[in-house]
Amino acid sequence: MRLVDEAAGGSGDPSAPAGAGEASPRSAFSRRDLLKGGAAAGTLGTLGLLDAEGAGKKKRRNKAAGGEGAGKAPAEEQAPNLPEICGPGPVKIRFRVNGEFRDLAVEPRETLLEVLRDRLGLYGTKEVCDRGSCGACTVLVDGSPIHACGTLALSVHRRQVNTVEGLAQARRGGRPHPLAEAFVAAGALQCGFCTPGFLMASQALLTRNAAPSEADVDQALCGNLCRCGCYPAIRQAVLATASLGPVTDGVEVPEPGARFPLSAPEMPPSEVPPPEPPPRG
Amino acid sequence: MGKKDKKKARAAKAKAAAAKRPRGGKAAAAKAAPAPGLPGGLALALGATVFTTDIALPGLLHVAVARCPLPRAKVRAVEAAAAQKAPGVQAVRVLREAGGETGRLGEEVVLIAAESRARAQAALGLVRIDFEALPPETPAPAGGAAPAPLTLAPPDEEAFGAALTELEPDAVMGGAAFRLKESYGWERQTLAEWEPHAFVCEPVAEGGLQVWAASEDPGRLAAELMAGLSLPAEKVKVVAAPVGAIFGGRAGLDPVDLACARMALEIKAPLSLVFDRRAELIVGRHRGAAFAEVEVGADKDGHLTAWRSRSWSGAQAPPPLPHLVRPPHRSVRHALVPPEAAPTPHEGAEAAAYFSGCALDELATQMGLSLADVLPLNGSLCEPYGDRFAALVQAVTGDAGWKTRWHPHGDSAEGPVKRGMGLSFGLVADGSGTLAVVVAEVAVDRQTGIVTVQKLHLAGETAREATPEAKKLVEGALSRGAVQGLSRALFEVGDGGAIAGLCEVGRVSTLLVEAEGLGAPVVQVDGPGKLPVLAARYAAPAALANAVANALGLRLPVLPITPDKVLAALAPPAPPPAPAPPAPAPPAAPPAGSTPPPAEPAAGEGVPPASPPQEPPPGATPAGTSSPAAPPPATPPSAVQEPPPEPPPVPPPGWRGRS
User: N or C: fewer beta carbons within 10 Å in chain B?
Assistant: First the structure.
């Protein structure tokens, strides 16, 4: 189903995350204009993940949103998002990880990988190259595979992130995720360090193409590297999983361009992260 | 995402939050325990295995390391006060004070412990170190070998140790009907495991230390820690964390581990040190380069009679030459040239398998045969593996359609893409021995130099009584090993960290031949099929090199075979006084004048008739003809005057003028 952006309104929405502007005195930053004018918004915009409405950029996903979305007045889609000026202090973002809402204050330079591993304790996503070349840190953002090491955490604001832990939770009839089972059965892992990334990339493939050909598999997984050389078995495992039928366990795939509402459902108190420890010294 | 799961997760989180810790440790307590209900393989696949990099302890501090960017330097000044004041930083240790010297690339100078990795890294930017480059120390190795980097040119004669000789190789070689003398090499490569080097240590009661590390040999690790920290045995506890990958020995301490352990004891806080990729590639473990000059002789019926080889590498132990096929008359010498890296366990056998597989292929070419024809003639030289080896060769060549599809070296097809097939073999001489034979099919694009692997045919062995699961494990192991060999043979360049990906591997077909009396060693695959992995990894590089030679009619003797080397080998010699264009291509080929004289095609009958109609590049000789060893870095013939300031052209790594 389509997640409708109910909170779309104006930038005056009270639920808009508090930005650096009021959170940190350090944001009276002398390079404010520079950041405002281009650097921050431009960088995030080029990632294709963050709507840069706040900075007056053209919304990239309008087209992808399909007829209905495209027909909406732009103002309606201009949901309150990140503040115009991001950083240098922490910025509050809200996103969903494996179906759970998370509110975090992240520094603009923090990558999604750092946030997942070091802040949320989701260590299943591995860091290997930290430069977007090996695919070990592949996670899904709104169903699309991305390198968490090369994605700023800010850019997943109001997006859905799925990690390998989501696949681990998804059980069908008490059995582990079919991709994981197929990987083990085919001997598609040795050291296991690249495998979570491969699982996520495979999941993304199978979500959008339930009956991939060998060439499809090669193309979808060519951004993931396996040091142990399990490639033939990986190919076999993905094709074997596809033959079992559609696999969407543990992944939410929203309509393109959709955002979950900002007036999000219950946020249990325990979800709210403890305040940042004050800087020492 | 049942409600129960959610509740559980929340409860765990609340618990975790209760334990007071700085940011970074959230949900750590839940994570530190092994994932419930997932058997080993599934836990690995689903990311639930806790590697050393994933350990989160209450109050854990993360260490960042400032390293020396030079091979040798004097530390003029170190300023770390600003880092000490950076947010989240708990401690700073300067390991090389001003006035000190560093002696290796990437040597650790400053350690910073902070509440998160990001903060430690950020504080690293505030450290100022002033290095003064010092000339590299020229080691004076025993035997007086040259300190120059290893190349195809052998070191001085006196560098070689005494020959290990069987029977009379010199006399027999002299009378051989077919004779080949060629040099081969394998450049230095990083191991570049995916799991980074990680070391977590926590001070425990009464000055003790508990350590987590991925190590094959926790006992050795504990011993090194005890010695390094002067602690008694009862105060050092090593917890063996899951080992993600070994690739040639993960056992002991890295020098910085010890510094880290000392720092943890001093500041009484647990520390986590994880190498980033750069550190992994620069200071991580490497396989040193290895080279060999191989001379093989055969009688007129194709029986190998004599073998003489001289190898040189940075490893104390020579590559165990010849690999598997052992002519009766042999002499083997080795030179230890200054070690550029600590050798890793399998380096020798891997290189030996490559050198042997290539040399035999070239000799077979000289006889007008293929390697698949020559090996069965020499089964008696492979004892005690003769029959088993022959069965594997038969199986894999049958699978590949070798008899009908193999063509003499040099694909005569039209167009820039040339196809070739190559065969080679690997043996792990452990117990009853583990064998693998590989046939590789490649396509080489003469315009781009890119080698595309189309298919690998593998054959390995299994005991008749092995269970289907065990057979499957062996098949998987063979395929992994061959892919690892492929990656090393074609993609892994120096410190770059590049490896082969899914699209580069092509198709793999694996055959298992049931062998008699194998018993345990082949079937028993704890450490999933380690031996078949090695055997296939030994076999694949020479099979690929032979396939490339088969496609092009040129031999590229030095691994890895990268596009630049292929292009350099194919390129016509550049007009000597090239006005130095921004040449993206590797250095120009040595001019024709310096190539060895197109060697005597003396060895008669078998020399492949100049079948390749595709005009061989000027100065090329058909692969397999004998030619003297590589020319030294050639300066162009004196007739052509070069502008003096130009340094003498360095020959492209790994390509000899033969092509």
Answer: N
Exposure string over B307-334, b if 16+ CB within 10 A, otherwise e:
bbbbbbbbbeebbbbbbbbbbbbbbbbb
What average pLDDT score do residues B493-516 get?
A: 89
Q: Nearest residue of A to residue B506 by CA position? A: A232
At B202-214, the pLDDT tens digits run 999 888 999 998 8
CA distance B24 to chain A (A): 5
Q: What is the pLDDT of residues A39-62, one digit of tens each?
A: 444 444 444 444 433 333 333 333
The neighbouring-strand residues paired with B512 are B460
> Residues B229, B230, B235, B236: is their CA dihedral positive or negative?
positive
pLDDT of residue B218: 84
Structure tokens at B321: 């030459």
Give yes or no for a cis peptide into B541 (omega within 30° of 0): no
- Interface mutation vs chain B, best among A97, A107, A117, A118, most B CBs within 10 Å: A118
Taking contacts as CB-CB distances below 8 angstroms, the residues of chain A near B49 are 192
Residues B148-175 have a mean pLDDT of 89
Full 3-state SS string of B337-376? CCCCCCCCCCHHHHHHHHHHHHHHHHHHHHHCCCHHHHHH
Lowest mean pLDDT among A23-32, A185-194, B158-167, B225-234: A23-32
Question: Measured between alpha carbons, how far is residue B618 from residues B424, B590, B591, B614, B648 in Å?
Answer: 29, 11, 10, 12, 22
Q: Return the SS3 of B385.
A: coil
Is there a contact between A125 and B47 if contact means CB atoms under 8 Å apart?
A: yes
Candidates B6, B194, B525: best to mutate against A (most CBs of A within 10 A) is B194
In this predicted model, which residue has the larger pLDDT, B628 or B474? B474
For the segment B349-386, what is each residue's pLDDT rounded down to a tens digit?
A: 999 999 999 999 999 999 999 999 999 999 999 988 99
Inter-chain touch B245–A228, beta carbons under 8 Å:
yes
Question: Which residues lie below 8 Å from residue B198, measured CB to CB, with a gap of 6+?
Answer: B51, B52, B53, B213, B214, B241, B272, B273, B274, B275
Digit-coded pLDDT (tens) for B91-116: 999 999 999 999 888 999 999 999 99
Instruction: Using an 8 Å CB-CB cutoff, list chain B residues near A163.
Output: 47
Strands B198-204 and B271-274: antiparallel
Distance in Å, alpha carbon of B142 to nearest chain A alpha carbon: 37
Pairing mode, strands B271-274 and B61-67: parallel
Distance (Å, whole) CA B79 – CA A33: 33
- ipTM passes above 0.85: no
Amino acid identity of residue B459, one-letter, is A
Residues B579-597: pLDDT tens digits?
544 444 444 444 433 334 4
Report the chain B residue with the minimal C-alpha distance to residue A104.
B23
Tell me if A188 sits within 8 A of A236, measured CB to CB. yes
How many contacts, defined by CB atoms under 8 Å, are there between A and B? 200
- Where do we find the tokens 């390995």? B460
